[in-house]
Known about the structure:
By secondary structure, the chain is α/β, with parallel strands linked by helices.
Amino acid sequence: MQSIPPEGGITKISSIVRAMTPNRNLRLSVVEQSPLRKGGSGQDALQETIELARVADVLGYERFWVAEHHNIQSIASTSPEIMIGQIGAATTRIRIGSGGVMLPHYSAFKVAENFRMLETLFPGRIDLGLGRAPGGDQRTAAALAYPSAPIDVRAYPEQVDDLIGFLGDRLPDDHPFKDLRAGAPTVGIPEVWLLGSGIDSARLAAHRGLPFSFAHFFGQASQGPAIVAHYREEFRPSRECGEPKVHIAVQVMCSDTQEEAEWHASSLRLGRIQMARNEKREGIVSPEEASEHVFTPEELRFLESSGMRGTTGDLAHVVAELDDLSQQYAADHFGIVTICYDFKARLHSYELLAEAYLSGESETAEAIASQSLPPSAEPSKSE
């Protein structure tokens, strides 16, 4: 396959959108993992995350969530709370938060302190997404807790209760830390979301009366609509959330043509195979390198069965698939995860979706990213 150059110039896509009928009620957010290119640096990856947040802010995306991963060389995002502060300073409107904090690694009190401080700095804009997964392997989880033992994941529901109590100064009277305050008083508190890919997380979110974000892009994607339906059926209204609130995280690679999208997505597909085999990776490989790999039938079946292939194609194809997923989940809010080697291609993917669904600025994503940046922060170029 011949190399396809990155998209360039101002792409005229309004006429394409007018020829389609996308669900204009669909709301889009960003779930960002700060992917690291092979041969690139962590500084590149984190700076690109900030640039992407600025673009999403202008284009009309609703939320920008930063992931937490550990000991994974192809992902630079290890500390969401640090990145949220940087992103908040670089944006003006978009809600910002974690997607998510892996709570079993930490003290609920300290997480509450961190996010109440962020709420003080960026009032009314902070989301606190929580997960129970380790965000890495078990040895890494042990290192995060060392010299203490890792917190038993079975304590996660109690940790969630404590965290909400610390955030709102509403711990039960018999709680041993009832008199503690997690920082200075705030007008509001962060919006807490539970993240998950299975029925247990959905049930916990429902029983605690919290919003639920389902990770369609990995895990039990085929069971996703049933899991989300169970969340709605089991939901118990709370002070935090009066009715079920759902967010679906979806892997998307959108380009001007189907061929370009498949080209850019090939890097991630190979990376998923390498991860499943526990192969050492130095970052996201280029499409040129990925094109040299011939996927076996077993590898293709793995990608399909695991839900890791994602939604890949030109705008018409992606819109059709997102609208179909919206109906399957009865959901109107998607968190878009886009990972590829070329940062300009990532920006363009988000730009295409914004043109179809959102009402932000019509300026191109590349132009937005290049505005008012100091020389040291100019958009990164692919090798």
